[in-house]
Amino acid sequence: MMHTDGVTARRKFGVVGGLGPLGSADVFFKMVKATPASSDEEHVEMIFEQYPFKGSGSGSAATIERKLYVFDMIRAFEKRGVTTVVLPCFLSHTFIDELKANTSLPIVDIVEAVRSHVRRKYPDATRIGVLASDYVRDRRLFDAYFTSPPFEIVYPRSHEGIDLVTEAIYGADGIKRGNLRGRPVELLRRACEDLADQGVQVIVPGLTEIALVADEIGAQRVPLVDSNLAYAQYAVTGQPGSRAATFKIGVVGGVGPAATVDFLDKIVRNTPAARDQDHIKLLVEQNPQIPDRTENLVGGGADPTISLYATCKKLEDGDADVIAIPCNTAHAFVEWIQPWLGIPIINMLTVTVAHLRDTYPALRQVGVLATSGTIQSGVYQKALESQGLRQVAPAPALQARVMEAIYGTHGVKAGFTTGRCEEDIGAAIDALMDEGVSVIVLGCTELPILLPGGEYVARNGRRATLVDPTDVLARTCIGYAMSFASRTAVERLESNGQIS
Questions:
Q1: Which H or E run contains 285?
Q2: DSSP state of 413
Q3: Range of the domain at 411
Q4: What Cα–Cα distance (Å) separates residue 345 from each residue in 9, 96, 250, 342?
Q5: What is each CA distance from 29 to 208, 228, 241, 473, in whole angstroms?
Q6: Last residue of a domain, which of 179, 205, 237?
Q7: Regions of the chain where pLDDT drops below 50
Q8: Which of 89, 327, 421, 477 does the annotation list as catalytic?
């Protein structure tokens, strides 16, 4: 992105406290200790935020209250300039994907931190003992990270009908009640001994409170990892945290409104999906107040550049991965806007021309039906010539009829799709066919609403192929999203050691 101040922004951590207060505070303290700093000024900036949370000590379930508490905390961090969220609560990581899907901030993954520590320090360990609550165990949180093969997750067995770990933490005299000695420690010690009896090679706590009593538990036959320290070190040594592995398309809408709806419809209809969740995430900024592009290019009307750029920036700020602008004429301004953005605009014109070249390799000339602004700006002509294709546009009188079909009182922008507008476009197509054109680009996004892409049969029986750039753009966006999903799946398998 252009025009940065040249100073590398420092990371600013937001630590979600209160979920258990003691464990969260321990992680915060260990983050401070783990920071490589020779003076106070060199420490990273951190915010530790904690509010009374009525469910923090009342049970081991991921309640709705817990989810909303964490989400609100992250939203508050966003407003305070936090760059990375630290979430020292294993239970909350059972819904980390829900959080990632609805926030822009990366969240440092506590289970990934522990997994990374174990693989680095105990490379031969494959039988992993886990001290976790009943809820975390039942949700198989650790199994998703220590995948089988080669790993095997082992939990302590119940003793006289008691879940040793859950009782030690959440029981009436448990650690969450402030009891750091006595029965809770004895229960955890017994759980560690049981894991050792089951042949584990390392024991991993899945509750941040366990680190508080590690000294009281004492030495064990197998190593007991300090999960809090592993998480703190993982966070401060540059691990970026992760955001949702979800591809999001930002759409500059309102140029025009009906064309935007048509584009969205083509995204939905062409996405291979068996359920709602298989569809692509879209962020649409419907801004019909963007000044008319053709009026600016042809008649000296208001400049839409700032409005287009501001809309793109909103999409970028909303964490879109790419931007689609379902307006051919607006692409006359893309070359000025793109250098100022940090994400790419998928150029509707260039992907359409690439589609023409791939689909019709012998093609030499292409008819273009578009606004006068698009024609006079030369954006399609330039894109076509880059692929060895010649643009054929309607003669002035027929171009006026094309404009009437789009902008006229009975045109598509006024809500009409039959009658005079249809006749005007038909006349322009016939004239292009008279010049020997067999492939015609519907180079205004309102035109596919009037005439669908595909084979066009004139009244006299002549045929031409109408190419719909809106459809090409939609399919290109879908291709990017599908490619991202496949790449993300491979990266997950690689990170879990399932492929190499």
A1: strand 281-286
A2: G
A3: 246-499
A4: 25, 30, 9, 10
A5: 13, 10, 19, 51
A6: 237
A7: 1-9, 56-58, 493-494, 496-500
A8: 327
Amino acid letter for position 361? P
Q: What is the pLDDT of residue 21?
A: 85
Q: Are 188 and 210 in contact (CB under 8 A)?
A: yes
Two structure tokens written together for 41? 């000024």
421 noted as active-site residue: no
The pLDDT, as a whole number, for residue 59 is: 54
Residue 3: inside a domain, yes or no?
A: no
Helix and strand counts by DSSP (H, E) for the chain: 20, 16
- The count of domains in the chain is 2
Verify that 165 and 196 share a domain, yes or no: yes
Which DSSP string do the residues of 123-181 spell out, in sequence order? TT--EEEEE--HHHHHTTTGGGTS-TTT-EEE-PPPBTTB-HHHHHHHSTTSGGGT--S
The answer on 255 and 156 residing in a single domain is: no
Both structure tokens of 38: 């020779």
Q: Which of 89, 312, 444, 477 is catalytic?
A: 444
Cis peptide before 288 (omega within 30 of 0): no
**In whole angstroms, what is the distance from residue 481 CA to residue 320 CA?**
12
> What's the length of the chain?
500
CATH classification at residue 494: 3.40.50.1860
Query: pTM for this structure?
Result: 0.64
Q: What is the pLDDT of residue 39?
A: 53
Burial of 488 (0-12, 13-18, 19+ CB in 10 A): middle
Q: State how far the Cα of 274 lies from the Cα of 249, in Å rounded to an integer.
A: 20
What pLDDT digit, counting tens, does each position of 389-423 carry? Answer: 999 999 999 999 999 999 999 999 999 999 999 99
Catalytic residue flag (residue 477): no
* Under 8 Å between Cβ of 53 and 19: yes
